[in-house]
């Protein structure tokens, strides 16, 4: 058993969050993770309020355990999704790609535990001061939209700066990373890439095969120039995007190329035009498993490492 304040706070068996991945994390995956004792998270991504309400209701049918919804704050539908989540009184909301300040009031009034992703100490302190229940400190090893710092440096600095629990994310895909996160001051971990290959995950076969086949230097970051850096697998899409970026192509052109590219990867398995977002930990993901098996393996590995740790000190 690993004790964690986050388990008591949310009512979880295990201190493991499944990252909210746009297009990927739907109710089926989230419910499977929650039923296995972790925190399953539905991604609202850029979807509208009707889709999100439907997914939340499906998840409530599939599990009686706590689950969360991730709100991507750059979404044009963020405000209407925020209201639906307050109406539905979802147990947990995580946020990404921005400061959730303007939605805190309606979420807290609905009794929701709000757990923002923070890329810096400054935002961690700010959201703590307005009522966040915990923060997810996500380093740049992660997939998708990323911040500046790495997990190794971000987690201890955030843990020192706030009193609320810290969930470490970015580069964590096995029990070794989970044990390390504890040493850095985290109370739990969030994994995205490892859950991409879960049996219950809807990602296309092509997407899952890419994760399993990935080596250590298989990802690239594009979009730094436009201020929205995104980590994804090196594919024809990212190579083209990177070239256009280097050539100084306008934001508008780049956005045109990027629109729909994640959907093409997740839903169609389009290896040519798809944007396959994934973290650096893809190189550590070797097999397909159920969500319950992933959680069991993470816990067993982490516990074995932590139990053995005293032997390192003589
Ligand atoms: O959000 C993510 N990962 C994502 S979002 C996404 S969809 C997207 N696609 C293209 C461009 C942009 C987004 C795919 N993957 N992770 C959490 C995360 N949040 N990473 C970084 C941040 C972040 C960045 C700045 C959070 C807050 C923030 O605040 C800035 C401020 O206002 O202080």
UniProtKB/TrEMBL annotation:
Keyword Phosphoprotein: no
Keyword entries, A-Z: Flavoprotein, FMN, Oxidoreductase
GO MF term set: nitronate monooxygenase activity
InterPro entries documented for this protein: Aldolase_TIM, Enoyl_ACP_red-II_put, NMO
NCBIfam families named in the record: enACPred_II
Record-given protein name: Enoyl-[acyl-carrier-protein] reductase FabK
Native organism: Candidatus Enterocola intestinipullorum
Name of the gene this protein is made from: fabK
């Amino acid at each position: 058993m690993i004790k964690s304040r986050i388990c008591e706070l949310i009512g979880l068996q295990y201190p493991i969050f499944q990252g909210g991945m746009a297009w990927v994390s739907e109710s089926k995956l989230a419910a499977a993770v929650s039923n296995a004792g972790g925190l399953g998270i539905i991604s609202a991504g850029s979807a509208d309020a009707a889709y999100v309400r439907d997914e939340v209701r499906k998840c409530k049918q599939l599990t009686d355990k706590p689950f969360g919804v991730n709100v991507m704050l750059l979404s044009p539908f963020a405000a209407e999704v925020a209201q639906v989540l307050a109406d539905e009184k979802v147990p947990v909301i995580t946020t990404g790609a921005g400061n959730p300040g303007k939605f805190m009031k309606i979420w807290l009034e609905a009794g929701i535990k709000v757990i923002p992703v923070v890329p810096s100490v400054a935002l961690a302190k700010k959201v703590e001061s307005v009522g966040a229940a915990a923060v997810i400190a996500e380093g740049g090893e992660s997939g998708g939209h990323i911040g500046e710092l790495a997990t190794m440096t971000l987690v201890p600095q955030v843990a020192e700066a706030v009193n609320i629990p810290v969930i470490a994310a970015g580069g964590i895909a096995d029990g070794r990373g989970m044990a390390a996160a504890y040493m850095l001051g985290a109370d739990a971990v969030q994994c995205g890439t490892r859950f991409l290959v879960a049996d219950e995950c809807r990602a296309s076969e092509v997407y899952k095969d890419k994760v399993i086949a990935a080596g250590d230097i298989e990802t690239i970051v594009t979009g730094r120039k436009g201020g929205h850096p995104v980590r994804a697998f090196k594919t024809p899409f990212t190579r083209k995007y990177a070239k256009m970026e280097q050539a100084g192509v306008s934001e508008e052109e780049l956005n045109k190329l990027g629109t729909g590219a994640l959907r093409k990867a997740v839903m169609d398995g389009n290896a040519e035009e798809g944007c396959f977002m994934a973290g650096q930990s893809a190189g550590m993901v070797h097999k397909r498993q159920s969500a319950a098996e992933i959680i069991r393996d993470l816990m067993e590995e982490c516990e074995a490492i932590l139990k053995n740790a005293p032997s390192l000190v003589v």
